[in-house]
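Record 1 of the preview.
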Amino acid sequence: MVRFPAVAPIVFSVVVLLGLQFTVSSSSLAEINQDSTKSAAARNLKQGQEHPHEVHCSRERSRAARQIIEEYLMPFVKREKFQMSSLCKLHPDNDMFRDQEEHKIHVDINEWRCGYCKKSFRAEKFLDQHFDNRHYNLLNVSHNKCLADLCGALHCDFVINLKSQKTKCNPAAAARNRHLCESLADGCFPVNQGLSASQLHELFLHQFCDAHTCSEKKRPFPRGGLKQPNILYLATSILTLMLLPVLYLIVYLHRRDMRGKQELKRITKRTKPS
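->
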């Protein structure tokens, strides 16, 4: 019978211990890797919360474009009873911020309220930041729905007066803006859709596109727009209506007093001895 050396049990024990140590080390390494993965995921989630979604569309310039459309275009569209196609970039459905803007409540000069969650802010800019941080999911972020992209054609700078100093006219920029403007006219008011569309097409060119030139000094919106009520005129009218009864009363009392004096004089003359 073959006999094993006495050292065999010792070697066997060492191998078993090394195997157990390797198993423990592998388990620990797996746990470390798992913990690292969880930490990285948590860090990425935290970074995502610290850096909210960025929208590459200017809210301020979109607001200016919306104001221009409502004031200098829509009154004529409504007068013609023309229905703009949703494919027209000027259509209200193609405004990324429209729903949020409609949920702004201007309570007082120093108070703006969120129409979604009723939270109040002391300035509109803080409400805009609140929309960006808390209600981003309500934005209509579909492609080609940024009104600010149309500012070149709609003369947004003329309205919001971003340029404090007059700059020299750039023929290339003017030509580019005129091309965009004419493409809006063609897309929103096709001349083959009837008399109203043809008239609005001509009005749009005259109202917006003709001013995109460096050869002549033309101002945009020559046809005017929605007439806003004059606050001074309203105040004067209300004050006049309030003072009118008082004026009538003064005139009435004055005439009655004059008649009374004249009657008194006649009575006095009749009672004098001859």
